[in-house]
Amino acid sequence: MARxxxxxxxxxxxxxxxxxxxxxGRKLPVLDAPGLRPTxxxxxxxxxxxxxxxxxxxxxxxxxxxxxxLSFEALSxxxxxVQCIEKSSSVARQLQLNRxxxxxxxxxxxxxxTDTLDxxxxxxxxxFDIVFLDPPFRQQxxxxxxxLLVEQQWLNPGAFIYIELESEAPxxxxxxxxxxxxxxxxxxxxxxxxx
Length: 195
Known about the structure:
Order of helices and strands: EEHEHEHEHEHEEE
CATH topology: Rossmann fold
CATH architecture: 3-Layer(aba) Sandwich
Number of strands: 9
Strand order of the largest sheet: 5-4-3-6-7-9-8
Number of domains: 1
Strand content: 25-35%
Largest sheet: 7 strands, mixed
């Protein structure tokens, strides 16, 4: 009788650190998965300084959630709800484990394991106030995501959209106001607002 081969569970080989709020200093395990590029502490600190005073009880959408670094940071700073989208089932499982380890309820933090572009094709049940858009580099995902966010009405009036892109990426053709624009190494990061 042939033995069934079992898939080895993927182990967390790295970690992210929450840098502010109620879970400041907590470290969370992160899987070593292709294309996973957690936002650095320095960039996170800058982003959350930009958003200071604009987070409490807001609805947040984390597309390409990956390590969940931005989501957990936002929740630590009193965001009301985060919807995470993550295509990799093993990475999504790690997000669930990290959610549970922090004692976050599924009413505060929902994780959907699906393709981001497929997810954005549907109209939302409610709009979002903050969007984190940090796709894998060099896969031409930013422009179609931005178009779907507008076309399917995912954004509340005055919503903030945070984007991380490779430094050589072409300029985005969006109608939002560019509030902040910085670069750290090969990463270009920007904060837009819906007018």
